[in-house]
Design a protein that fits this description.
Strands 3, 4, 6, 7, 8 and 9 form a six-stranded mixed sheet that branches. The chain has a three-stranded antiparallel sheet with strand order 1-2-5, with no helix packed on it. It is of the alpha+beta class. Helices cover 13% and strands 32% of the residues.
Protein backbone atom coordinates (compact mmCIF):
# COMPACT_ATOMS: atom_id res chain seq x y z
CA UNK A 1 0.00 0.00 0.00
CA UNK A 2 2.89 2.24 0.50
CA UNK A 3 3.80 2.11 -3.16
CA UNK A 4 0.27 2.94 -4.15
CA UNK A 5 0.23 5.91 -1.71
CA UNK A 6 3.55 7.19 -3.03
CA UNK A 7 2.30 6.94 -6.59
CA UNK A 8 -0.86 8.81 -5.70
CA UNK A 9 1.08 11.63 -3.90
CA UNK A 10 3.51 11.84 -6.84
CA UNK A 11 0.60 12.07 -9.28
CA UNK A 12 -1.02 14.84 -7.26
CA UNK A 13 2.24 16.77 -7.12
CA UNK A 14 2.70 16.29 -10.85
CA UNK A 15 -0.83 17.55 -11.49
CA UNK A 16 -0.21 20.60 -9.32
CA UNK A 17 3.07 21.36 -11.04
CA UNK A 18 1.47 20.91 -14.46
CA UNK A 19 -1.42 23.16 -13.43
CA UNK A 20 0.96 25.94 -12.44
CA UNK A 21 2.97 25.83 -15.65
CA UNK A 22 1.98 27.32 -18.96
CA UNK A 23 -0.45 30.12 -19.47
CA UNK A 24 -3.28 30.32 -17.08
CA UNK A 25 -6.63 31.81 -17.84
CA UNK A 26 -6.83 33.71 -14.58
CA UNK A 27 -3.33 35.14 -14.67
CA UNK A 28 -3.20 38.51 -12.98
CA UNK A 29 -3.45 41.33 -15.43
CA UNK A 30 -1.67 44.65 -15.25
CA UNK A 31 -3.05 46.64 -12.38
CA UNK A 32 -5.70 49.06 -13.56
CA UNK A 33 -4.30 52.49 -14.14
CA UNK A 34 -5.63 55.09 -11.84
CA UNK A 35 -7.03 58.11 -13.57
CA UNK A 36 -7.16 61.28 -11.57
CA UNK A 37 -10.51 62.90 -12.08
CA UNK A 38 -10.46 66.65 -11.83
CA UNK A 39 -13.51 68.62 -11.16
CA UNK A 40 -14.02 71.08 -13.95
CA UNK A 41 -12.80 74.53 -13.02
CA UNK A 42 -15.57 77.02 -12.68
CA UNK A 43 -15.62 79.38 -15.60
CA UNK A 44 -14.06 82.74 -14.88
CA UNK A 45 -16.66 85.45 -14.53
CA UNK A 46 -17.05 87.57 -17.61
CA UNK A 47 -15.45 91.01 -17.41
CA UNK A 48 -17.82 93.68 -16.20
CA UNK A 49 -18.81 96.25 -18.76
CA UNK A 50 -18.68 99.51 -16.79
CA UNK A 51 -17.25 102.90 -17.47
CA UNK A 52 -14.05 103.75 -15.60
CA UNK A 53 -14.15 106.72 -13.25
CA UNK A 54 -13.88 109.82 -15.38
CA UNK A 55 -14.08 112.48 -12.68
CA UNK A 56 -11.65 113.43 -9.93
CA UNK A 57 -12.10 111.32 -6.77
CA UNK A 58 -13.59 113.25 -3.85
CA UNK A 59 -14.24 112.51 -0.19
CA UNK A 60 -15.84 115.10 2.12
CA UNK A 61 -15.41 114.50 5.86
CA UNK A 62 -17.62 115.72 8.69
CA UNK A 63 -16.80 114.97 12.34
CA UNK A 64 -19.03 115.54 15.35
CA UNK A 65 -18.45 115.08 19.04
CA UNK A 66 -21.32 113.41 20.87
CA UNK A 67 -22.46 113.90 24.46
CA UNK A 68 -20.20 111.00 25.44
CA UNK A 69 -17.20 113.00 24.04
CA UNK A 70 -16.61 110.35 21.39
CA UNK A 71 -16.06 111.29 17.76
CA UNK A 72 -18.39 110.24 14.95
CA UNK A 73 -17.28 110.62 11.34
CA UNK A 74 -19.49 110.76 8.28
CA UNK A 75 -18.94 111.81 4.73
CA UNK A 76 -19.89 111.88 1.08
CA UNK A 77 -17.92 110.58 -1.87
CA UNK A 78 -18.21 110.14 -5.61
CA UNK A 79 -16.35 106.81 -5.44
CA UNK A 80 -18.19 103.72 -6.77
CA UNK A 81 -21.02 102.15 -4.79
CA UNK A 82 -19.73 99.51 -2.35
CA UNK A 83 -16.18 100.92 -2.22
CA UNK A 84 -14.39 99.91 0.97
CA UNK A 85 -12.97 102.78 3.01
CA UNK A 86 -10.93 102.86 6.17
CA UNK A 87 -11.61 105.70 8.62
CA UNK A 88 -8.80 106.54 11.05
CA UNK A 89 -8.87 108.97 13.98
CA UNK A 90 -5.44 109.76 15.44
CA UNK A 91 -4.66 111.82 18.54
CA UNK A 92 -1.79 114.13 17.59
CA UNK A 93 -0.22 114.30 21.06
CA UNK A 94 0.12 110.56 21.69
CA UNK A 95 -0.27 108.98 18.24
CA UNK A 96 -3.06 106.70 19.52
CA UNK A 97 -5.27 105.56 16.65
CA UNK A 98 -8.78 104.21 16.24
CA UNK A 99 -9.85 102.57 12.95
CA UNK A 100 -13.01 101.33 11.35
CA UNK A 101 -13.68 99.84 7.92
CA UNK A 102 -16.85 100.95 6.19
CA UNK A 103 -18.47 100.59 2.75
CA UNK A 104 -19.89 103.39 0.67
CA UNK A 105 -23.68 103.20 0.28
CA UNK A 106 -25.59 105.74 -1.82
CA UNK A 107 -22.50 107.96 -1.85
CA UNK A 108 -22.31 108.15 1.98
CA UNK A 109 -20.47 106.51 4.86
CA UNK A 110 -20.60 106.70 8.66
CA UNK A 111 -18.08 105.48 11.22
CA UNK A 112 -17.62 105.63 14.95
CA UNK A 113 -17.89 106.36 17.72
CA UNK A 114 -14.13 106.72 18.12
CA UNK A 115 -12.25 107.14 21.39
CA UNK A 116 -12.16 105.57 24.82
CA UNK A 117 -15.34 104.99 26.78
CA UNK A 118 -14.49 107.92 29.02
CA UNK A 119 -14.40 110.25 26.01
CA UNK A 120 -11.68 112.01 24.05
CA UNK A 121 -9.34 114.27 26.01
CA UNK A 122 -8.92 117.84 24.79
CA UNK A 123 -6.41 118.25 22.00
CA UNK A 124 -5.77 117.95 18.30
CA UNK A 125 -6.98 115.00 16.23
CA UNK A 126 -6.42 114.03 12.59
CA UNK A 127 -9.34 112.30 10.85
CA UNK A 128 -8.53 110.39 7.65
CA UNK A 129 -10.77 108.49 5.24
CA UNK A 130 -8.91 106.29 2.77
CA UNK A 131 -10.06 104.16 -0.14
CA UNK A 132 -8.36 100.80 0.40
CA UNK A 133 -6.20 99.23 -2.33
CA UNK A 134 -8.00 97.96 -5.43
CA UNK A 135 -6.96 94.37 -4.68
CA UNK A 136 -9.33 94.24 -1.67
CA UNK A 137 -12.24 96.00 -3.37
CA UNK A 138 -15.30 94.16 -4.77
CA UNK A 139 -15.17 93.27 -8.49
CA UNK A 140 -17.62 96.02 -9.41
CA UNK A 141 -15.45 98.65 -7.73
CA UNK A 142 -12.26 97.26 -9.30
CA UNK A 143 -13.88 97.49 -12.73
CA UNK A 144 -14.44 101.24 -12.20
CA UNK A 145 -11.17 102.22 -10.48
CA UNK A 146 -8.85 99.73 -12.22
CA UNK A 147 -7.00 96.71 -10.85
CA UNK A 148 -4.32 99.00 -9.39
CA UNK A 149 -6.37 102.19 -9.13
CA UNK A 150 -5.14 103.42 -12.51
CA UNK A 151 -8.51 105.07 -13.32
CA UNK A 152 -8.37 107.26 -10.19
CA UNK A 153 -7.50 110.93 -10.61
CA UNK A 154 -7.55 114.16 -8.64
CA UNK A 155 -5.64 115.84 -5.81
CA UNK A 156 -6.64 113.19 -3.23
CA UNK A 157 -5.02 110.33 -5.19
CA UNK A 158 -1.70 109.03 -3.85
CA UNK A 159 0.46 105.92 -4.14
CA UNK A 160 -0.39 103.15 -1.69
CA UNK A 161 2.21 102.88 1.09
CA UNK A 162 2.42 99.12 0.37
CA UNK A 163 3.06 99.46 -3.37
CA UNK A 164 -0.40 98.15 -4.29
CA UNK A 165 -1.29 100.88 -6.77
CA UNK A 166 -3.16 104.12 -6.17
CA UNK A 167 -5.51 104.99 -3.31
CA UNK A 168 -7.63 108.01 -2.39
CA UNK A 169 -6.94 109.74 0.93
CA UNK A 170 -8.77 112.70 2.52
CA UNK A 171 -7.68 114.13 5.86
CA UNK A 172 -8.79 116.94 8.20
CA UNK A 173 -7.57 118.22 11.53
CA UNK A 174 -9.94 118.87 14.44
CA UNK A 175 -9.48 120.37 17.91
CA UNK A 176 -11.54 118.90 20.72
CA UNK A 177 -12.14 121.01 23.81
CA UNK A 178 -14.27 123.65 25.49
CA UNK A 179 -11.92 126.50 24.55
CA UNK A 180 -10.38 127.13 21.15
CA UNK A 181 -6.62 126.85 21.16
CA UNK A 182 -4.20 128.85 19.12
CA UNK A 183 -3.25 127.16 15.93
CA UNK A 184 -1.12 128.15 12.97
CA UNK A 185 -3.38 126.37 10.47
CA UNK A 186 -7.08 126.26 9.77
CA UNK A 187 -8.77 123.75 12.03
CA UNK A 188 -12.30 123.13 13.09
CA UNK A 189 -13.05 123.24 16.80
CA UNK A 190 -15.53 120.63 18.00
CA UNK A 191 -17.62 121.21 21.10
CA UNK A 192 -19.81 118.73 22.93
CA UNK A 193 -23.32 118.77 21.45
Amino acid sequence: MRAWYRAWVAGMLLALVAGCGGEAEDAPQDPPQQVALREPEPPSPPPLEVDPMGEAAAIDLVASLGGDRRLRVSGNSNLPEGARLQVIVERELSGVRWRERVSLAAGRFEAGPFGPGSGLPDGGYRVTAELQAASVQPREVQARIGTEGEHLSGPLVAASPHGLGLVVRASRRFLVGSEPRRANERVEVLRVE
